[in-house]
Each structure stands twice: as C-alpha cells, then as structure tokens.
Write a structure and sequence with these properties.
The complex is a heterodimer of chains A (115) and B (459). Chain A is 23% helix and 30% strand. Chain B is an alpha+beta fold and 459 residues long. Chain B contains 12 helices and 19 strands. Chain B has a 10-stranded mixed sheet, sandwiched between helices. In chain B, strands 5, 14, 15, 16, 17 and 18 form a 6-stranded antiparallel sheet that branches. The radius of gyration of chain B is 25 Å and the shape is globular. The two termini of chain B are 33 Å apart. Classes of the chains: A alpha+beta (115), B alpha+beta (459). The interface between A and B is large, with 43 and 51 residues.
Chain lengths: 115, 459
C-alpha cells in the first residue's frame, strides 16, 4: 500500500473549544471517508497529537459531510486569555493532523482526487 | 408559521469578529444585491474588556468599529434599504445606538429607525438570580460560583433570535444587540421575513446552520482553506451571502466578481469550525442537526443546503461570566544562527537561573518556553527542517496569581542582548509587563429568569 500524508486524502479545519480544540477531518472522496472511518481512530489521532494535546480525544462522525470531528480536550495550555501558547486558539491543529503518514489502499488513492 | 413577506431573502455577514476587515461589509453593500447585512463583533473576551471601559466611562462599552462602518455606508444602506443586524452593542447597546443615531444625523439621514435588544447583561442582577435559585455552577468543571464571585467582571446570557425578529418588526433599519448567539444574527431576520415560529424546528435549524456557515465571514468562501493555493484572488475575497427561502432550504454564495470560492469544500470547512457533536448543535432557539442536511454544488460559487432537521430547544440559556484569574507576561527575542536553536535553549535557561538566584521560581504550569521556527505549533510531530532553523524567535511567558512575581520575569528577558550568547536581537517591544488573565465561567440559566427588552428610536 502506498504511504502518503493524510493531506493527500483529507482536508482539515480546527478551532478552539474552551480549554481544548476541535479538528474536523474532511475526506476528499467517499472511498477515503470509508477508509478513514475505520483507520483514523481516536487512539491514532491522540498518539499523533500527543505533543499538542494532554487530554482525552473524542470522535464524532458526519456522513453527509464525510467528516470525522475530533475534540482534543486539553490542547490550548489553559485556553482563552490564560494560555501562554502561540496557538492559543488551536488554529493550526488541523494542519498538524494532516501531517500524519497513512498507508492507503491503492484503490482508495485512485478514487481520491488530489487537491 | 405565518405567510412569508417575500419568497427569497439575501443575508450577508460582513464581520467575523472585532478586528475583521472593514472592506468586507463595505464591499458587500457596494458590490451586489442584499437585503440584510449582519455583523459579529463579540468574542468571549470582548465583553469583559467592554465592561471595564464602561466602568471608567458610562458612554463606552460597545464596538466603536460599527459606528465607523455606519459612517462609511449609511447613505447606501438607506438608499438600497439594506437592514443591518449587529451585536455591536456589547455591554452598552443604548450608547451604541446613540452614537449611530448621531452618525446618521450628521449625514442628514433623518427618520431612520434604530432598535436595541437588551436583557443579555446580567452582571447587575447576578445576586438576585442566585437568590432566585440560579446556582451558576460551572458547566465544564462543576465548581460553585462562590469561589470566584468577588472577581466576576462581566456576566451575559446568549440570547436567541426571536428578540431580533421582534426588533425588525418595529420597522427598524438597524438592530443593535449585546450578547446573543452568532447564528441568531442571521436566524432573526429569517424569522421576521418568513414568519417562522418556535414550533418550526426544521426551519429554525436551517437558519441556524446558515448562520453558522457565515458567522466567520470569509472562512466559508475560501479563507483559512487547506488547499489555499487553489483559491482565486484571496486579496479581494468575497464575503458570504445566504439566499434563503421560506421552506428553510438555502444557498450559500458570494457576489459576482469577488475573489475566493464557494464550493462544497469551502462550506464544509466552515461547518467544521468550532464544531462539537454535529448532530446536536444547541442554541436557545433549536437543537440543530448538522448531519441532516444535503450539501450540493448548484452552479458556480453556489452551494445548496437542503433538508435541515431540528429538535426542540432546551429550557436554558447559556451564560458566560468572566472573572479576574491572575496575571501573565509574555515576551520574545529573535536569535540568529549559527546554532540558533542551541543558543535559544541556552537563553531560556539563563533567564530561569537568574530569576531563581533572585528568589523567583515558576512551576511547570506557570511558565512556557517556545522556540518559534523550530516547530512550536506542531509540537511532537517530526518535521526534519525544523531541527536546524537559520533563526529562532525565543518566546517566553509566565503566569500566576502574584502580579509582582509575573512582572519580575519581564525584566530578565531583554538583558540577554548583552549578557547572553551572540546574535540576540528583536527586543523592540521592551520589557514584558503583567496583564490580567480573564477567566471564563460557562453556566446555564433557566429561560424564565431572563427578560428581553426591545426599544426603538429615530434619527
């Protein structure tokens, strides 16, 4: 299976939610969505983001948008004005997630248009 | 549901936050057809700052940017009959209204109706509400308000969209609110135009989803997009326009000739923004289900959203209280190569050692060091090019309850220029000073304890 960056088969947007952030992962095709729904577990995302998020990770699915929405519960160093971090709003967390490397089945890759 | 006033209504949002470009709303008024212009000025921290401004001067405490915008667009707004709904009132909607009336009169515009929506500000009635049985328990932590009550600096509930519709029903050209939900700025006009009632849950959900899509301005038209290289003419990016219909189905678009792009991807990007459980988006008006809608391309720069479903609203409003939560100071220096990262690490150690010598030690939760340029934002993710940057911004900060201790930190950063490794520069900001941390306290309040009030005046 070819190894690619997650950004090859998904886009992302993130933002703050209290002392945490959300990362919405948008699959670039239905095939990519179905693959990611199985592959991109909360454990995998939590491990990849361990340097950013100190808390739990929860995942929601939105089939109509081909979105997996992850809530990182402790990723902003306190959040709001209590944060000392540069990215106190989690604006860059989506792009961080997209730097994950993924082994993708060839047929999924072929069914997924490039950005 | 009563009869709609017209079959299609165009609503644009021209301001995603206080500090967004004034060109957004100016161009929306200038460059295409529009029935309503909404403007969102309030972030969580804003109300606390406004409360402080008002306590020093009773004529302040609202978004002054809004008055500047009215000065620049008033004639067009009146001539084209574009109604404006803005949460610019902050903690002082009446002062905001008076400034707007003054701006209208100064341009010879008389008889223009300006309405205010009030009732969100519960700072003065906090103790009365507590006595009436509202505990204001922290929604996230379960903590009791008594621990921070003495340091509360602002308290507001997020009002829904119906008071905005009530204000529009007075014939107001401009509606000024304080704290309300962001999507309510869009839903309010739709309730007014289409005669939706509290029982029209699917329509209220549709209007809420429309409001969520446009609430951050250009974030749904190609701004902050993963595939940014493919977005045309970002400099002249168009702000979003909703074309809404009485059934609830709507189209997201932007004015012809503007930059950016409206497609399924750009709209879904924004649907994901600050999203929690997509099937349960809670507002005071409805619980909207983002997973219920179909999202389809319907022509160039047009995305159709159909079939929204909603569930009944909860019996509570969300309240947001802010309180003084200690102090923080942040400062930065730029450190050139060679060995930029190694020198920056040495600099940080030097600062902590000197402070410790003088009796000031900061625990791991009270301090932060960042080497900007060496992978701060994506910490923990291996990025080869970040291991040997040609220069680094050393960014250090401390926080805590003791103001003097926080201030003491600030005076040990700049001395590195002459008493640390070579190549330390970029200290133009001078000594970092302690600033107050504003804490947020989310809570729920029974709707029956909150009274809203609509007033209307003429220029």
């Amino acid at each position: 299976m070819p190894t690619v960056l997650l950004s090859r088969i998904a886009a992302a947007r993130s933002g703050d939610k209290g002392e945490g952030s959300n990362v919405g992962i948008m699959a670039r095709s239905q095939a990519a969505y179905e693959f990611l729904r199985t592959w991109l577990t909360t454990e995998r995302l939590a491990e990849h983001m361990h340097g950013i998020n100190a808390g739990d990770v929860v995942r929601y699915e939105a089939d109509n948008m081909r979105v997996l929405n992850f809530i990182l519960s402790d990723s902003l160093g306190g959040g709001g004005s209590a944060s000392l971090k540069t990215d106190a709003q989690g604006k860059t967390h989506g792009l961080a997630a997209l730097r994950m490397t993924v082994d993708v089945p060839t047929e999924v890759l072929e069914a997924t248009p490039e950005a | 549901m009563s009869d709609p006033k017209r079959p299609l209504v165009r609503i644009a949002n021209g301001q995603g936050f206080w500090g967004d470009s004034i060109l957004g709303p100016i161009r929306l008024v200038r460059e295409g057809p529009l029935d309503y212009l909404t403007l969102d000025y309030l972030a969580e921290v804003t109300l606390s700052i406004m409360q402080k401004l008002r306590s020093r001067d009773p004529s302040k405490g609202y978004a002054t940017d809004f008055v500047k915008l009215i000065e620049r667009t008033a004639k067009d707004l009146v001539e084209k009959d574009i109604k404006v709904v803005a949460n610019a009132g902050g903690v002082n909607p009446r002062a905001c209204r008076d400034a707007v009336l003054e701006a209208l009169r100064a341009q010879g515009l008389h008889g223009v109706k300006v309405a205010t929506v009030e009732g969100d500000d519960i700072l003065e009635s906090l103790d009365t509400l507590t006595a009436a049985g509202e505990p204001f328990t922290n929604m996230d932590t379960g903590a009791a308000l008594s621990g921070v009550r003495d340091t509360v600096t602002s308290a507001n509930v997020y009002l829904g969209a119906f008071p905005i519709a009530e204000a529009l029903a007075t014939g107001a050209q401009i509606v000024i609110t304080g704290r309300g939900t962001d999507p309510g700025l869009v839903l309010g006009p739709l309730i007014h135009e289409f005669g939706w009632g509290p029982e029209d849950l699917d329509q209220l959900a549709a209007g809420t989803i429309a409001g969520h899509i446009v609430e951050c301005g250009a974030q749904c038209t190609g701004g902050n997009h993963t595939d940014w290289q493919s977005i045309p003419d970002m400099a002249m990016i168009g702000y979003p326009v909703i074309e809404a219909t009485p059934s609830g189905d709507f189209t997201v678009t932007k004015h012809e000739g503007t930059g950016g792009r409206v497609d399924v991807g750009s709209v879904v990007h924004q649907l994901c923004y600050e999203m929690g459980d997509p099937a349960n988006y809670i507002t005071p008006d409805v619980v909207a289900d983002f997973t219920s809608v179909s999202i389809e391309q319907d022509g160039e720069n047009r995305v159709a959203i159909r079939g929204a479903k909603g569930l009944p609203a909860t019996p509570t409003f969300k309240a947001s209280l802010s309180y003084a939560d200690g102090w923080k100071a942040l400062g930065q220096l730029t450190i050139s190569g060679p060995d930029a990262l190694a020198k920056a690490r040495a600099c940080a150690e030097i600062v902590w050692q000197r402070l410790a010598y003088d009796g000031f030690e900061y625990g791991p939760e009270e301090r932060l060091v960042e080497f900007v340029g060496a992978n701060v934002c994506h910490a923990g993710i291996p990025i080869p090019e970040a291991s040997d940057p040609s220069e680094v911004v050393l960014r250090m900060g401390v926080k805590g309850p003791d103001r003097a201790k926080v201030d003491r930190f600030g005076s040990e950063l700049v001395p590195l220029v002459t008493s640390g490794p070579p190549g330390v520069t970029g200290f133009a900001g001078g000594r970092p000073k302690a600033t107050e941390i504003i804490g947020f306290w989310p809570a729920l309040v029974a709707k029956e304890h909150i009274t809203t009030n609509v007033t209307v005046s003429e220029s």
